[in-house]
């Protein structure tokens, strides 16, 4: 039976204790954490694994191997192996779905009509329905004047918050195309709602339409400036530069904001949390973080002054580093293996083996291709990194488009809602979440592949 987690994150001190326990556990296995599964085969890393473990697992059934990440062991396994897996399981951050009605007594997800749901797949529709109600509840509780949808994409969440929940919303995204799509969708939705108002005799009612801003949020200062600009009443014009607005000292006019993010990737989630701590206008953050592999990390050749991990001084004192391979491995959820059958499990392992074999062929016969590993997720991550460098070298897009209508005042993935308290306990909690997600998948994947 797997050990139950004996740690908690009820306070910053307890959270740090949990992270230290993880750090102490994984340091002896750095050769696994820092290697992509392709390298596990190519570089013969199994030779560093305990021989008794290898002999035991080589004769084990696929079904038993698939249960390892879930903390299920067999009685005949070596004691050291069983202790390793059970300890690993006890350190996991539990992935349990919260009872949202206990957290938000008035929680009642909005069932989207066909106009609002246009273009959404079932997963996205479910996420937007649930998250929009949570954002609306939090915004009401903190009496926010507006919501900023950070990394808004095509504006699905922003439009539901504006049209259905009657909130003032600013949608920020780095892609100008997304801003155009958001505005086009908003126009179609607006026509539908205006037709409904005329039909039911409420034609004089004002409609909230999301404002859109196209901007690469590359730093905390950028998002802080955007929150400052968005908190002002009345007409708004884009400044000549983001930094110029900071110099104007426009903060502190009494407005309150909520930052929301549906799949706020990489450093974006970190930036939102830091903005909460540093901006008086921001009263709460509701963020569903993702793509932890895209986090920037201190000490790994990052030119940025501000890093996405670690955030807290406590974790920095532990001297824990995750590394690129560890973060990439975290994208592969080993816990999902337990739902695979024998055939699917074998296919999963074969894919890794073929990928490694292909990498070895490239390395031997086409070395010029070769920054190893250059295929799979690592290859994608490398290309993304190169693309981000290109984006950073270009002038940041500072286009801004707004509606001419007046504004009215006013297993889903883990949602993190943090209210503004003036303290920084969110920092070690975030570090724990990132660390746990990364090391869970890293050890599960590399170890089981042996």
TrEMBL record:
Domain (Methyltransferase): residue spans on this chain: 123-297
Pfam families: Methyltransf_32
Database matches in SUPFAM superfamilies: S-adenosyl-L-methionine-dependent methyltransferases
Protein name: Methyltransferase domain-containing protein
Organism: Gossypium barbadense
């Amino acid at each position: 039976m797997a050990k139950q987690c004996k740690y908690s994150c009820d306070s910053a001190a307890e959270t740090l204790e949990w992270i230290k326990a993880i750090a102490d556990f994984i340091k002896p296995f750095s050769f696994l954490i820092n290697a992509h599964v392709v390298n596990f085969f190519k570089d013969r890393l199994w030779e560093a694994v305990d021989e008794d473990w290898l002999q035991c697992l080589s004769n084990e059934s696929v079904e038993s191997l698939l249960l390892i990440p879930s903390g299920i062991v067999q009685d005949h396994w070596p004691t050291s192996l069983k202790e390793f897996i059970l300890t690993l399981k006890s350190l996991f951050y539990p992935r349990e779905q919260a009872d949202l009605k206990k957290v938000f007594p008035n929680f009642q997800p909005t069932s989207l009509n066909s106009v609002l749901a246009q273009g959404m797949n079932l997963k996205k529709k479910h996420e937007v329905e649930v998250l929009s109600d949570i954002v609306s509840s939090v915004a009401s509780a903190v009496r926010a004047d507006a919501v900023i949808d950070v990394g808004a994409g095509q504006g699905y969440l922003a439009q539901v918050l504006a049209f259905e929940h009657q909130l003032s919303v600013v949608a920020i995204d780095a892609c100008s195309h997304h801003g155009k799509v958001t505005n086009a969708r908003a126009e179609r939705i607006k026509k539908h709602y205006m037709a409904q108002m005329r039909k039911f005799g409420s034609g004089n009612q004002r409609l909230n339409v999301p404002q859109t801003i196209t901007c690469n949020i590359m730093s905390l200062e950028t998002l802080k400036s955007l929150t400052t600009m968005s908190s002002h009443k009345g007409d708004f014009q884009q400044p000549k530069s983001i930094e110029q607005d900071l110099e104007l000292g426009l903060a502190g006019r009494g407005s309150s904001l909520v930052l929301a993010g549906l799949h706020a990737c990489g450093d974006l989630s970190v930036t939102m949390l830091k903005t909460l701590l540093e901006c008086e206008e921001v009263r709460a953050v509701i963020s569903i973080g993702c793509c932890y592999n895209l986090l920037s990390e201190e000490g790994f050749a990052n030119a940025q002054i501000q890093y996405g991990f670690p955030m807290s001084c406590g974790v920095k004192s532990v001297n824990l580093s995750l590394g690129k391979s560890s973060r990439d491995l975290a994208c592969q959820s080993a816990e999902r293996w337990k739902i695979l059958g024998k055939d699917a499990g074998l296919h999963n392992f074969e894919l890794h083996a073929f990928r490694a074999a292909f990498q070895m062929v490239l390395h031997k016969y086409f070395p010029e291709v070769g920054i190893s590993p250059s295929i799979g997720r690592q290859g994608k991550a490398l290309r993304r990194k190169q693309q981000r460098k290109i984006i950073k070298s270009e002038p940041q897009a500072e286009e801004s488009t707004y509606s001419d209508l007046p504004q009215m005042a006013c297993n889903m993935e883990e949602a993190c809602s943090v209210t503004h308290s003036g303290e920084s306990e969110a920092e070690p909690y975030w570090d724990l979440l990132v660390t746990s997600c990364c090391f869970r998948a890293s050890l599960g994947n590399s170890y089981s592949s042996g």
